[in-house]
Every structure is written in structure tokens, then in C-alpha cells.
Amino acid sequence: MQSYLDFEKPVAELEGKIAELKSLAQTDDAVSISDEVLRLQQRADDALKDIYRKLSPWQKTQVARHPQRPHFSDYCKAMVTEWTPLAGDRKYAEDPAIQAGFGRIDGHPVAILGQEKGSDTESRLKHNFGMARPEGYRKAVRLMEMADRFGLPVVSFVDTAGAYPGIGAEERGQAEAIARSTEKCLELGVPNIALVIGEGGSGGAIAIATANKVLMLEHAIYSVISPEPGAAILFRDAGRAQDMAAAQKITAQDLLSMGIIDGIIDEPIGGAHRKPDVVIAEAKKQIVSFVDTFGKGYGPLEIREHRREKFLAMGTALS
After folding, report:
1. How far apart are CA 90 and CA 58, in angstroms?
2. What are 228-287's pLDDT values in tens digits?
3. Which helix (H) or strand (E) holds 81?
4. Which of 74, 225, 285, 299 has its CA 20 to 30 A from that of 166?
5. Which residues are CB-contacts of 166 (< 8 A; sequence separation ≥ 6)?
6. What is the 3-state secondary structure (H, E, C) of 7-52?
7. Given this model, what pLDDT does residue 112 score?
């Protein structure tokens, strides 16, 4: 069943009526509903377009967190062949919040990292809602070191509210692990690309998103802190998350205008969860284009310099 957000109520009501009419038609063949269904569907489509044409930053945050939004596992299944997962950091444990491995995308051999939130209660608990512990970031470093050794481009899928802030994670060096992973991203002599497919929260996202090219889905968000804790810190009121989201400039459109990201992947009207195949196909196209471009004619020094200059330039043109 389609899950609706609060601001999608007009669409929910119309699509609910459509479902009722179709159910009625199944029980009574004499009832002709085709014209009424078409009329209601057109109204629902128009309402959806109108709503998504003027989403606020907070509404985009809700879309980015939609429970039916495609996650890393969906992208991996749809675009990666010969998938070989990598487990464990060889220091402490395996962290399911970050998935890592090797595979092929449209025939190109690549190393792949992805933050997985899970799609139901069981998988969300297993993956800790996409919030990685230190061992997850150390696993990411391990994969990137192997990718560098074998000359494989690195593809990262970012989708986390932030790194896990638990006591155990702090005791095992959460900040150090994030810093090491970010450092390894910058040191890579192979090209890397990061796609923010949902939430890109804090250092937990940056640890695998410090890339030659950073793309965001149209309704994804990317910020130094999630709106709720940010509001609690700055406004002393977590209930002002909407104000915080607007002040942070967390949308793909804002970040592109400031030069923080390099491009936006369009989503279908109503968000990626309504037509995930369309979004995944476009993401695959962007990844293949990047690998074709950076995989040929660029040496390790040029790749590192490109990445270095990209991040050093951030903020220099802001007034």
C-alpha cells in the first residue's frame, strides 16, 4: 500500500476514492467506472504536481525519509551484477549499517559502499537505521584501500541521519573512524562518486561522500546536522525543526547553487518511492558516465588534485 505524508492528504483522499471505485467494480461487473476513475486520476495527478512543485525544505526532509523510498539494497539489486560483499573491519566486528563490496555496473568493475536503513522493523534494527558504528567506517576504509590497490572506481550511496552516537561507538573511536574514512576518500588515487539518495547527515555521510563528484536526488537532503537536533541546540526547541531545515539550506537545489554538490538527479512527480525503477535507471546512467569519463585519461595525481581543488573551492564564492 502507498504510504502518504501529511502534506499529501489531498492526493491520498483522491487515490483512496479511486481504490474504492476499482474495488466496487470487481464485485459488480454492471458498474462502469472507467470515466470516473480517469477523472479522479487526473485530479490526483494535478494535485501531486502542484504539491511537489513548491515543497518546503521540511517537506523535502519528510520525502527524503519516506519509508518506501528506495534504499541502497534496491539500487544494488537493480544495477549491480557479480555482487561480492565484503564483511568486517578486521579489527572489531561487522557493521550492517554500511554495506561494502565489489561488482559490475554496466560491465564496469567498481567498489561499492552504501548506507542501508532497512525497509521493515526487522531490517531497520539489523542495519541500525543506517547509523554506522566505528567498525562500519573502518570497513569502508578497508574497501577503499583494496579499490586503490586494484585500480577500481569507488561508488558510494549515502543515506543516513548520521553516525551512531551510542556510548559503545564513542568508546571504540567513532570520531577517529569517521576522520580516517574521510581522509581515505581524499587520498584515493582512483575516481570516486557519491550519490545522496535520501538523508546525508553530518560526518556520518561525509565519511563516504568526500568524492570527485557528489550528486543528490531531487528531494534528498544533505546537512551538517539533522533538523531536529539542530533545532534543539540552536533554538532550545526540537519542535522548531521546520525553521531549522529552512535555515540550514539542506536541499539539493540550495547546495547546487552554493557549489557543495555537482548535480541533481531528477525524481518522478511524487518522489522516488513512486517510480523507483526510473530513479535507479537515471542514477546508473550518471555513474556509468562518470566512470567512463574519469576512468580514462586521468592518473592518480590528477584525480587527487581534482578532488582537493573541488573541496578547497567550497565557500570561496559565497558572499
Report:
1. 40
2. 999 999 999 988 999 999 999 999 999 999 999 999 999 999 999 999 999 999 999 999
3. strand 80-86
4. 74
5. 133
6. HHHHHHHHHHHHHHHHHHHHHCCCCCCHHHHHHHHHHHHHHHHHHH
7. 98
Name residue 217's beta-bridge partners: 265
- Kindly provide the b/e burial profile for residues 165-191, where b requires at least 16 CB atoms within 10 angstroms of the residue's own CB: eeeebeebbbeebbebbbebbeebebb
Please give the DSSP secondary-structure letter assigned to residue 92.
S
Helix, strand or coil, per DSSP, at residue 247: helix
Query: Whole-prediction pTM value?
Result: 0.92
User: What pLDDT does 32 receive?
Assistant: 64
Q: Minimal CA–CA distance to 214: which of 256, 246, 172?
A: 256
Using alpha carbons, select from 226, 189, 183, 234 the residue that is nearest to residue 206.
183
Query: What is the grid cell recorded at 206?
Result: 561525509
- Alpha-carbon distance of 207 to 223, in angstroms, equals 13
Helices (H), 57-133: 57-64, 72-79, 121-126
Strand intervals (E) in 116-223: 154-160, 192-201, 213-217, 221-223
Q: Is 251 helix (H, G, I), strand (E, B) or coil?
A: strand
Contacts of 229 (CB under 8 A, 6+ apart): 238
Residue 83 backbone phi and psi in degrees, to 5:
-70, 125
**120 pairs with which residues across the strands?**
none
Cell 590497490 sits on residue: 149
Segment holding 80, helix H or strand E? strand 80-86
Coil, helix or strand at residue 216: strand
* C-alpha separations of 20 from 15, 26, 51 in Å: 9, 10, 23
